[in-house]
């Protein structure tokens, strides 16, 4: 069965709390499982969420601050220990490759050969993901950091009433989809006459960054936007100094980019669950769509396709 959902494994920023594990997000997209920014404790959070190493096909690190990568050794060793046979693509900033090597081989264990490395550099990088496209762009943070965008190709949806009106039925429908045109009712029927564009679904994952052009480029038209909101507006100057966003800025990004569902996460330890209404209110001042205040082990479905 096709599953498209975000499983949130951790929502804390630099310091975990009693109720928040450090970062960790598994985006399940049909047969792919993209594990973003596994922080400390991710392996245990995966077990609590009913996930296994076999669910992971991509291991994506935005940058090498500890709350975004200290779970890498456990995840890698679990992939080896559990005998995962499929390829797992490890994607990370090339500028932090030294840190990747340390994490990848942090302790003695029986290694695995299924992990392939995809270091990122430049203004835009793409990683093959089957029929999907995983794009990365650099962000504005004190250390090299990349955000990610997952997109499926655009396609077309058939319009049953038009197929019937023009007499295209049965196997001819599949042929029309393959070849772009068929003969029916004494004339040539083209695909454009009996179908409409269907935009591919998109998800964006944006962690530690100030506002910059690439934040908006990654978020453009996202059905699901997972974005850091480390601080509230009273700490906006602190956010700018440390290279982070506020909830209000996250809401602005979602609104200007035309996102559909906004997931706020990566909260400073200074805030508790009682501050949830403040985060939601700040984001909602700019963004009128669905807003999710992330909690550990919450599952967020990718919104259904646009009509």
Order of helices and strands: EEEHEHEHEEEEEHHEEEEHEHHEHEE
Largest sheet, strands/sense/barrel: 7 strands, mixed
- At CATH level 3, the topology of the largest domain is Metallo-beta-lactamase, Chain A
Oligomer: single chain
Per DSSP, the total helix count is 9
Report on this structure.
The chain is α/β, with parallel strands linked by helices. The chain has two domains: 4-153 and 199-301, 4-Layer Sandwich (Metallo-beta-lactamase, Chain A), CATH 3.60.15; 156-196, no CATH class. Helices cover 24% and strands 29% of the residues. The strands form four sheets. The chain has a seven-stranded mixed sheet with strand order 6-5-4-3-2-1-18. Helix 8 runs parallel beside helix 9 (276-284). The protein is globular. The two termini are 22 Å apart. The model has no long low-confidence stretch (mean pLDDT 95).
């Amino acid at each position: 069965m096709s599953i498209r959902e975000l499983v949130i494994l951790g929502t804390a920023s630099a310091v975990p709390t009693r109720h928040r594990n450090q970062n960790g997000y598994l985006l399940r997209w049909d047969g792919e499982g993209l594990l973003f920014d596994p922080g400390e404790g991710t392996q245990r959070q995966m077990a609590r969420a009913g996930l296994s190493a076999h669910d992971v096909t991509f291991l994506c690190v935005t940058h090498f601050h500890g709350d975004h990568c200290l779970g890498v050794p456990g995840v890698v060793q679990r992939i080896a220990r559990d005998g995962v046979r499929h390829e797992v693509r490890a994607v990370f900033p090339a500028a932090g490759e030294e840190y990747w090597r340390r994490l990848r081989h942090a302790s003695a264990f029986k290694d695995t050969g299924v992990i392939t490395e995809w270091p990122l550099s430049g203004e835009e990088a793409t990683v093959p993901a089957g029929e999907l496209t995983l794009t990365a762009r650099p962000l504005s943070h004190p250390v090299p950091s990349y955000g990610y965008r997952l997109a499926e190709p655009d396609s077309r949806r058939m319009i049953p009433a038009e197929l019937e009106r023009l007499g295209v039925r049965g196997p001819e429908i599949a042929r029309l989809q393959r070849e772009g045109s068929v003969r029916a009712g004494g004339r040539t029927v083209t695909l454009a006459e009996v179908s409409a564009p269907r935009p591919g679904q998109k998800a964006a994952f944006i962690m530690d960054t100030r506002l910059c052009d690439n934040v908006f480029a990654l978020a453009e038209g996202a059905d699901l936007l997972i974005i850091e909101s480390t601080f509230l507006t009273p700490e906006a100057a602190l956010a700018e100094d440390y290279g982070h966003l506020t909830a209000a800025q996250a809401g602005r990004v979602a609104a200007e980019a035309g996102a559909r569902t906004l997931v706020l996460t990566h909260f400073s330890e200074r805030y508790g669950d009682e501050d949830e209404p403040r985060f939601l209110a700040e984001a909602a001042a700019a963004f009128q769509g669905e807003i999710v205040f992330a909690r550990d082990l919450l599952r967020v479905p990718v919104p259904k396709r646009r009509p």
